[in-house]
Amino acid sequence: MKQKVVVYKKVPEDVLMFLSEKFEVIYFKNLEDRKDSNFIQELHTAHGLLGSSLKIDKELLDHAPNLKIVSNISVGYDNLDIEELNKRGIQATNTPGVLVDTTADTIFGLLLATARRMPELDFYVKSGKWNGTKNEDLFGVDVHHKVLGIIGMGSIGKAIAKRAHFGFDMDILYHNRSRNEQVEKEFNAAYCELDELLKTSDFVCLMTPHTPETDKMIGEREFHLMKDTAIFINGSRGKNVDEAALIYALQNQQILAAGLDVYEIEPINKDNPLLKLPNVVALPHIGSATKETREKMARLAAKNLAEGLAGKVPLNLIK
Ligand SMILES: NC(=O)C1=CN([C@@H]2O[C@H](COP(=O)(O)OP(=O)(O)OC[C@H]3O[C@@H](n4cnc5c(N)ncnc54)[C@H](O)[C@@H]3O)[C@@H](O)[C@H]2O)C=CC1
Ligand SMILES: O=C(O)C(=O)CO
């Protein structure tokens, strides 16, 4: 009898076909609620789970006694309780690599859009306000030849550094769990302690995973250390930032502006003060979301799942 796989995110047709050849596939194209009774019902007999963002913790796992693998269609896996999965001998996988360039493009684009106030200016033109000289109140700030501080010099951090160094002649500072000689050589990047990076950078870009250690790692103290001309970019996870402190810093000119792809709670509430601030450029957690890359991620996740259920060690097993 075929093993059973529950897919809880929309995936391309070829991924469904690939899975259906090997497994019995139950497909929830757009699962809105993890308490959905049909989903819970299917979990009881599921061997594999494929999707993203869903919180997978003890409460959910108690409904899935036969589960062998959880395959996340994302690189971040802060939605998974890894300790609980380990305890139950359930494998977990993610999709690193395939989304690096796409995410770096988005985050660097966000940095440019924030510095040059592109969404505001787009609105200015489209709303018919452009009818004379453009005054200083519309000007942005330069990106090229400025100092970019990257916190979390991993795969995506490096790809951002590459764009900044080769494309924009920026000076790169970085803070990471460990030094990386390759990025120091390739992008002339200088390692520094977090406080030094915050004090010195014109742009601070956060690219760490969300872990107990990085939870709210940028808060009141850190915004205080930044230049009042600094632009803060968060492409990592919203929970890495104390959002109330970010709002305060933006409202009180402690920093100049912020470009955000991620938020403490997603989707962000439309009444969140961040969305009322002209010095915030807000994207809907879209870093990796191009058609091509999302398809690659889904294919890689399906491959990981198939390897796990075949008794092999999946390529992207989370250790
Ligand atoms: N906005 C979006 O759509 C996307 C967001 N992400 C987020 O970006 C994160 C990073 O992705 P990758 O670069 O692929 O991961 P990675 O694992 O290659 O890099 C993460 C880096 O953060 C560093 N780090 C971890 N804890 C740290 C700490 N306490 N202080 C300083 N550095 C620390 C690590 O040493 C590592 O170099 C993901 O975990 C995910 O949360 C990833 C993809 C898309
Ligand atoms: O992969 C991730 O971690 C994302 O945030 C979405 O691609």
TrEMBL record:
GO terms for molecular function: glyoxylate reductase (NADPH) activity; hydroxypyruvate reductase [NAD(P)H] activity; NAD binding. The lineage of its organism: Bacteria, Bacillati, Bacillota, Bacilli, Bacillales. Keywords: Oxidoreductase, Pyruvate. The keyword NADP does not apply. It comes from the Bacteria. Its EC number is 1.1.1.79, 1.1.1.81. Residues 5-318 form the D-isomer specific 2-hydroxyacid dehydrogenase catalytic domain. PANTHER family: 2-HYDROXYACID DEHYDROGENASE-RELATED, GLYOXYLATE_HYDROXYPYRUVATE REDUCTASE B. Residues 108-287 form the D-isomer specific 2-hydroxyacid dehydrogenase NAD-binding domain. CDD domains: GDH. This is Glyoxylate/hydroxypyruvate reductase B. Gene3D superfamilies: NAD(P)-binding Rossmann-like Domain. It is an enzyme of class 1 (oxidoreductase). The keyword RNA-binding does not apply. Belongs to the D-isomer specific 2-hydroxyacid dehydrogenase family. GhrB subfamily. It comes from Metabacillus litoralis. Coiled coil: none annotated. One of its GO terms (cellular component) is cytosol. Pfam families: 2-Hacid_dh, 2-Hacid_dh_C. It catalyses: (R)-glycerate + NADP(+) = 3-hydroxypyruvate + NADPH + H(+); (R)-glycerate + NAD(+) = 3-hydroxypyruvate + NADH + H(+); glycolate + NADP(+) = glyoxylate + NADPH + H(+).
